[in-house]
Amino acid sequence: MATPAKNPHGPQNEPDYLNVTKGLKSWLVTLDHKRIGVMYLVGIMIALVVGGAFALLLRTELWSPGKTIVAQDTYNQFFTLHGAVMVFLVIIPGIPAALGNIMMPIQLGAPDVAFPRLNLTSFYMWVAGALLLVGTIPFGGLDTGWTLYTPYSLESKTAVLVATSGVFRLGFSSIFTGLNFLVTIHKFRPQGMGWFQLPLNVWAMYATAIMQVLATPVLGITVLLLTVERFAHIGIFDPTLGGDPVLFQHFFWFYSHPAVYIMIIPGMGVASELITTFSHKPLFGYRFVAYSSVSLALLSFLVWGHHMFVSGQSRLANMVFSALTFTVGIPSAIKVFNWVATLYKGDIRLKTPMLYGLSFILLFTIGGLTGLFLAILSVDVHLHDTYFVVAHFHYVMMGSTLVAFLGGLHYWWPKFMGRMFNESVARACALGVFFGFNLTFLPQFVMGARGMPRRYWDYDPQFHIFHQLSTIGAFVLGISIFVSLVSLVASIKTGKIAPRNPWGGSSLEWQAPTPPPLYNFEKPPVLHELYNYDDLYEVEPDVWERRAPIETEHHRANELARAQGAVADHTGGATAKEHADAQIHARAEEVRAARDMMETSRGEPPVSTAVDAADAAKVAGAGENAPAEAAVKKAEDEEKKS
Amino acid sequence: MKRYVLALFVALCTWSVAHAQPAGSGAPVPPPPVQGADQSMNAGGSASPTAAPAAGSAATPGAGSPSTTKPGLAWYDELAAKPKDVSTNFWLPKSVNKVADESDHMFIACVALSAFFFLAIAIAVVYFVWKYRGMSMVRKIIPSPAHNDALEITWTVIPTIICVFLFYFGWRAYIEVVTPPQKAVEINVLAWRWAWEFKHENGVTDNNLHVPIGEPVRLVMTSKDVLHSFYIPVMRVKQDLVPRRYTYAWFEATKPGTYQMYCAEYCGTNHSQMKPAVVVHQAGMTTTWDDQNGHHSVVDRGYENYLNDKAAESTNMPPVDLGKMLYEKKGCNACHTIDGTPRVGPTWAQKDWGKQIQMSDGKTVTMDENYVRESILSPLAKARPGYPPSMPSFEGQLKEKELAGLIAYIKSLKQ
What we know:
CATH architecture of the domain at 317-412 in chain B: Orthogonal Bundle
CATH class of the largest domain in chain A: Mainly Alpha
Helix content of chain A: 55-70%
Order of helices and strands of chain A: HHHHHHHHHHHHHHHEEHHHH
CATH superfamily of the domain at 317-412 in chain B: Cytochrome c-like domain
Oligomer: heterodimer
Strand content of chain A: under 5%
CATH topology of the domain at 317-412 in chain B: Cytochrome Bc1 Complex, Chain D, domain 2
């Protein structure tokens, strides 16, 4: 790992976490959550490239009916490994274990996660699982589909045992991360940070952790049973030994449906952060969004049967599962409406992460709405196991989760790597991802509705054009993702030095030095009201600071215009009174923010706050700003008292 | 803005319903006696530019190729070999099942609903982003509330109500689609890697599904090895087949023709080649079908005649011809070739008849009638090197005469 040069925005009295110790060994045995997160990130990026390569290979094979480049068996291995690598190695750990590991403790203002050793164990479990899963290739590959349905997986001549032992380890990796995050979020919140002062990303991590801890053991048990049955021929799932092959589907989906939410809820959390930051506005309906994460986590345990509407499951079960499935639509809808409402009257900046954030809203909307089709019993009978399903879950897993992952990666990259990436390249890639993705998967909806079954090496000529569009889209998508990753990695050497707060984010990680020191903060962070953007200003391009309002010429002219009732740029047809009210409201907010800043700062050293406020006052011009002065005075009083 | 959204929604609904009409109202009308020509016009012209007579793939001989190239086929096999009817009403294949209309209406309603919500959200996103995009370094202060309980409860309750309706109608249509009437033609379906066998009430078996028009058909299905799934897109019917258990499906065909059936549950190597034809026979009369060029005609003598002719077929065939027919009908061709190239199993065009052949356990066996018989009835007893032991047993599925036919056919292929 290349280490960036000393960053002036980094910690002043100690080295940052990238430079605190040197050498490969210092990384491999580190207990620092950021370094573990970065190692996860490297692993996940490699897995993403591998899984993506399988995707492009299988799309190439589907360019024409019959054989294009490989025969049936090879194609079957391509889609199996694509699915297994992407699900188990990329999407499930992507946001929680990589981005979450790096950022969640900093967002809490905590020095590390609760169990750093468990965190490192989780990473090595992931590595072991990943090696075994990819290690199936020299041992004969894997051709069961990532779902490992019995009895096929009991009879397959491929390396099923290697794969199940890999999945078993990956399950433990996921459980360890979840356990760690649960305890961290419960116990490591600073004084004054209640549950409803948690950033929504942390809420999402919490909901995800609940599912990881409760659902993943079932996956472990299931693959263990499968292993035992293949090994010792005990009749559990094998009908010839008296077992029940459909039982496997129940077990598998009891994990794998919550797993869908293990994948998507962190994406929703990241998207919430992106949208609030780049709208420069608190997230609309914070509590509804927070509750909807938790309710999704709980409801996700009750809907596994909707994967089995045509499996031979009883009609009563089908009816109940269909009804329950609709309930997960509601929290999802609430979230989408709240994200859109957040944009309303925001101050929207279309930086790269926001492009991903907006893509997320649109793609998740399509993914969610097409889920309705599959929840309707009568319609699902036709659409089940067709390309419609393939397109639907790619909109949710890839279009939503992976897009959120890329958005989050670009959003936090300057913070944890200390470098800005090339904005134009990244924006072009974000657009490429959006259009490439839609070109890949929109035709698959049409194909699926017309009856194209999934996991087909060969297809009928009427589907040819859709497959070709899809293949072209896949290449646009693949190249865009690859270039964006390369551009990010290149920025470690070539990027501009990143400031503390390049995007105007309001949560605690933006108070930390860039890159953060070993324990994240040099001085305890100042707690603000959550998502309070009132005193955040872009003092120069891509540098945001909390300070009292700046009285620039432009600003004064603007306010004067408003006071006189002129139509100021984008306020539409608002009246003079509204402008005046707005001004009064804004002033009140500023005063309150300054007061809050004092009151909610962590008890220990008020020095920092006083210094901050004094700095702010200096910049604003002494004497011009009453609230700031008052704040400084109050802080100094407090200092004397202590 | 609301007005436009509403107008767009109405337009979309009308458009969708207009497209849905042919499926809904067109299906039950009895078709004209001769209709092959306009049917294939549909197939080629309407939605799929490449839909013209299927070139087919190497592994499914005849499945999609024009019937004219196969002289000597029985009339029902010619029907099965006809190009499949793939006409669609943009979203869905045109329905041929009497009870599928309600589920199609649900689909179209859901398309309209999704389009409405997606467009509303997309327009809101684009509009807000455009209107409130940041333009200067100094933030303009436009306060707006951070939450609004009334609004949030509204957009919780509305989706809930919509979901209740979607669930109810979907469930109602589903019950109809899965509950067969008391009196129905029963067909037993057996699937294995990678072929289907349909057994009719008079004991006739075939690898294509032949059904009468206007009568409910109930399928009693099971699998010999792994999971398969019975899927006929035009019937909107799908049901998994589970080994050692029976599952059921039913439909009532409304339009004569040849349609595509698929295996929809992944089952290994030739999963994508497990796709027989579904032939819906005209009721009780003889009809002439033209192919798309009009110079060859296929005769449909009806389902009753199919059962009789098919039953008579195997009784007066020379053994080699019987073997050749079974080679295709029983799905032997999914794994064994007759051109000398190895596939999943060894080719039948061998040079070894009467000679010693090597087994994977090192022993040698004479390739003769007994060896072939054993290989068909208990395939796992002996394994040849280089081939996976994945062949299912045909014990109880072949009559003595049919076994003899297969053996004679393999013998005849010696090179």
